[in-house]
Specification:
The chain has 136 residues and is an alpha+beta fold. Helix content is 24%, strand content 39%. Strands 1, 2, 3, 4, 5 and 6 form a six-stranded antiparallel beta sheet that branches. Strand 4 and strand 5 form a beta hairpin. The chain is elongated and about 45 Å long. It starts with 5 loop residues before the first strand and ends with a helix.
């Protein structure tokens, strides 16, 4: 089982860049999302099962700091860790570094567990909360 922090590698494709071969700023948010999703999958948390139960996870807040530019064909590593875990929310701290370990971007992401049928926050299901407590 994974422990915090978790690392996820992403190659920068042409579709991730602007005309100058630089990663478009909004795509870093996609990279962060992929890393969080893959980490949950690695921990045995299958989000599609919870969606069938009207339970979902939504991003409430993102604070991002863009420090350098990633470029076409760079191999990036997204480092993720849980900084805070509450009954219905969690705070992730994530960083993206390039193949030379240069810090490209970092973010603090607040994710809330939501009852999708009511569109309101709810308690994170115990199976998920238990797993996340072990890695935070």
């Amino acid at each position: 089982m994974s422990t915090s922090p978790q690392n996820y590698q992403i190659r920068v494709f042409y579709e991730d860049t602007d005309a100058g071969g630089i990663v478009y700023y909004a795509n870093y948010l996609k990279f962060f999302e992929r890393a969080r999703t893959e980490w949950l999958r690695e921990l045995g948390i299958n989000q599609s099962i919870f969606l069938q139960q009207n339970i979902g996870f939504v991003v409430r807040k993102v604070t991002t700091d863009y420090l350098a530019s990633a470029k076409l064909d760079n191999l990036l590593t997204v480092k993720s860790e849980i900084r805070q875990l509450k009954r219905s929310s969690m705070v992730f701290f994530q960083q993206i570094v390039d193949q030379d370990q240069k810090l490209i971007c970092q973010a603090e992401v607040v994710v809330v567990c939501v009852d999708l049928s009511k569109a309101k926050p709810c308690a994170t299901p115990e199976p998920i909360l238990g797993v996340l407590k072990r890695v935070s």
